[in-house]
Give the backbone structure.
Amino acid sequence: MILWLFTVVMLFTIIAVAYIYLTNDKYLKLDDYLTARNRFSTFPATMTIFASIMGSWILFTPAEAGTWGGIAAFGGYALAQALAVMVFAYFGPRMRNLAPKGTTLFEFVFYRYGKGMYMLVLLIGVFYMAVFLAAELTGIATAVNLVAGIPLWVTALIIGCGTLIYTAYGGIRGSIFTDVIQALVILPTVLIAFFATVRYTGGFGDIVVRIKNINPDLLSLQNIGGLNFAASLAIAVVAANMFNQGFWSRVYACKDNTVVRRSFLIAGVLIIPIMMITGSFGLLAVAEGTLHFPSAALFEVVMYKAAPWVIYVVVLLAIALVMSSVDTLINALAAIFTVDIARFKPRLKPSVLQTYARMITAAICGIVIFVASKGYSVLYLFLIADLVCTAAVFPTFYGMFSKRFNGTAGVISILTGIAAGIPFFPDPSMQGGNLLNSFLMAAAVSIILALALERFSKYELNFESLKENVQDIQG
């Protein structure tokens, strides 16, 4: 299995490096390294968006939700995740119109709201993406350890280093190119793994009968627990993904606004069936009685009930999933810090800035590999990130449309929204509290307060000034 792991990672890495080397003469500017501005048509844009959101988490969370919440839970999760991508079809063109030469969301926040709001939103966004990164590598390392007993640090090191090589070398174009390949791997391997496992477990009809005998609520769209879970995610997932710089980089990488709309909408549609399939593995685990660790339901049912070759397909799928999301997040974080360095040290040469970008990329990879090697659970940190993003999303993006909403009002609205959600938030043992109520309170209070503060504001922004202030890095 370790040979299979190494071979797949190296194959993706070598293909990416070869592509970057052969196209170096077309991407000469630092801006090309960070955004590949206006370069990609609908097909590659759709594939990179789809692959970027489809991290290894789809092999864990939907299936786990299926074991207790059934179709209502993972079906609602799929719709929430699709919506989280589709909203960029609306907000992406708006961002391109307001700041056509922008690079990051946080750069826009700096010039739109000022330093206070910028620092708060930057902290929220970086925290969310760092947790996402750690969760991705931890998840794949844990899964491979379960399947083959390979130490966590070995898997984390192989995947982390492979991703680092082409991401540091080629920036976003290396990430997008491999995303297209990985998307084309993800789609068929999900189908092969699912239908093969169904065949080895008796077929659809037999599985449905057994689930009805065990827990018929799992097949009901009226499962209350599953619906509450789906509602919580509809709020949290949409809010959190709005702070994922990887998507904003792809907004700028699209050729024009038409491509932005089309690619984000198509990617959102593609997400739904894939998540429905991976969630169904939770039902298979229940039907087969292989459920020992709900978060590993997919891997357990494949290991115990399917033929050995199926687990190799699942590992290939997992590697494609994790590399496609990890390279996006690493590149996004590198872009954020590089743009900040360029703003505060404007005299630095582009070549020096690109060196800094590569050093930052390597440092981020090193930290994430170390965290993943420890196997820490980051679920609770993920939920905290979801809460703060839920409180922050309206005040942050309302400024795209309102001229009167200012940075001070934004900071007050976000912090008050977070404070309103905390009393309802579960403790680390997940006892007590209610996620849905917590997210609803955080969102509602921040929205109401933001709208109230706007009414008393005398501030008025000239949106045209953003086009002048937000500039790409020259050279």
